[in-house]
Give the backbone structure.
Amino acid sequence: MKTTNETAEVTPPPRVIRIFGVGGAGVTWLGALDRAEFSGAEFAAVDTDAPSLAASSATVKIHLETKLLRGLGTGGDPERGRALAEEQFSTLKSACAGAGVVLILVGLGGGAGSGIGPVLARAAAEAGALVLAFVTLPFICEGNRRGDQARAGLEQLRAAADGVICLENQKTFKLIDENTSVLDTFQITAGLLVEGVRGVWRLLTRPGLIQVHFNDLCGVLRGHHSESAFAFVETSGPARSREAVEKLLSHPLLDEGRALAASDALLVSLAGGRDLTMAEIGRVMEQIQRHCEGAKIIMGAAIDAGMKNRLSVTLIAAKNGTVPPPAAAAADDRPAAETPEQPSLPEGRAPGATPALSLEQRIRMPLRPARSRPAARMLQTQLPLAVVSRGRFDKSEPTIHKGEDLDIPTYYRRGMVLN
Amino acid sequence: MFDDSNIIVGLEIGTSKVCAVAGEQTADGALNIIGIGQAASRGVRKGEIVDADQVEDCVRNAIVEAEQMADVEIRTVYLGVTGGHIRGFNNRGVHPVVSADREISEDDVQDVIKNAKAINLPAENSVIHAVRQHFFVDGQDGITNPRGMLGARLEVDVHVVHGITNRLQNSIRLVKGLQLEVEEIVFNGLASSLALLTNEQKELGALVMDIGGGATDYAVYVDGVIRHTGSLAVGGDHVSNDLGHGLKVPLSRAEKLKRDHGSALVDKALDGQTVTITNELGLPLKTVNVGHLQRIMSARLEEIFQIIAQDLEQAGVSNYLRAGAFLCGGCARIPHLARLAEPILQLPVSIGRTNSISGLKSALDQPEFVTAIGLAKFGSLKTRRREAKSALAGIKGMFGKLLQRG
């Protein structure tokens, strides 16, 4: 555990944080963020659909459109969204210019979100920003196609962004009952996502007693096949620390605490008023540690004068996926936070794996360490018009299964890397 | 020379080979395999004919070889069909029992079956099989013979396998052009399951997957009746094509690499090892990474099983397969294929064996011949049923005449 106690002079100066909402869902969530709380952030909406943008209150609106779409949006096809975004790559990149941190809100599954999201993440990364994406996966009842598109989009995002926090809509079923209306359900989803954004926002902007670096956060979330879960709880009163732990352990998004036991890396950030006691922090951390032995835990604590008598805990858990990608196969035994995708990553630069450096070293370190792009990001993207040779099956009728051409080699469609 | 009337021939026009199996129906109705002919197939893609002239030669060669081996003359065949256009579904027919005493008569049974077989298909499709499953009498399930029972409402489920008429006709016409009579066309997946499964396995519930060169056919038995069939136009050809694409070698090389070094599971020990391809003079041409080879193969085969597992899940049969899954077809030879399939299908998986048929041992043990053997078995079951029927009809006719006279 890292408990480098830093004073205010050492904390990085506030950097520009830009929040992007992509696609219909993303733009809606952007509207749900409380402007007062996120003062200092810049809001930008990206969509292919003009009405959705018109309704948004974002300061920057980027409307991706070509004649080909005839004003109909992407029609649920991520390839179109992606092609469009690639075409306007420079616009996206310039929209990200100057930002230190870019948060991307995307509802995966449709055409705009799944298509544009990954490209935007890449554009932001190329513009020099740290990229964190908040995504939701569609409900299972929305159908296989959307599910598959969402998973594909998620993979691409993971390759392009520094961190991805993923919320499965399906899990909100545990939060609702028979009588919850559709509208309420979507509001709950939006609420959870906003909570997550708020948690990260606090991490980034509040002066911390025990500082959590953005890099620590990315270190936890990084890793191609890692799955992440997050939870945000707030309690008050004298028994707040005990209640906070209880709430966390029964949180539906953490599978009633099972996600903790399965996690490989954990980031816990506590925030409280001036009355926050060390004993409380100790109690919370001890309980959490007991539930996830073997996980790498990064913790931070912050004091907020406005939070009198209250305690909020933001928890982000990541675990290695069950299917390690071929590229990271050699490293899949290590916890997610220690999985640098580039073997040649210099020691000490691996985010999250930073050994306890002396204060002096830390100060000398550039505020934003030279980015080490994972190998996957160097991949040349496929041009929309590129045709994959169908080889032997060139002249036969294609075998289409759920929208996939099965004649194209499986390894190619799944993006397996043969190095 | 044998009496030709007992000879039953199964002919499979596959993507990688054409195979004819000649069987002899013994006096007690069992099938005895006496001859096999095969020829490397050309002009077939994904189980369907794309070049009729080439295929004609192959079929002729295979038939001649089988004729020579069995020392018979082949006149009729049971022809196997496959292809991605073939679909199976279950249909229910309903018939009210109108007789005063509510006893179900033979006519009622025939009527309900007729109703069940009356299916709305697109105009270009035709039915290959309509296999009877169980009867229901007033909603009571699992009745195999309702004759003589009392009830008001008789229902029956049939499993219908259908395909596009023109594509089915292509192979029939080709065989007819060789002066051979096509007795019946049979879906390959059904034929393979006939050859592999015992009655106990059909009762327990079993899946048969025939992974051939160009297509994968599968059939599911539950409670002794065929419950689900399907065909996926992906097979060993795709594996070779993937290898050719991924390793950047010509298709013929890929095919050979697949046979020599292929595996369904990635062998960690071989990762990073290379094999050198040499030309005919023994000079090295190219080195190929075995790990890549196996990874490409594994991805493709995994996908085939995943698609089929999804399909079984959708059909709602995946929980009833207590006897497990059986593999056949050329791809069943790929090492560790069963081990790859087990976690995906969540079933015990093994390579199928044609145990219930006697004859040439060398032929019976090969997974490639299962379909053709099954076709012959299908034929033998058909002829046996026909004989039984004609015998019955003969007796009836006799009685009828006697009664008329009286």
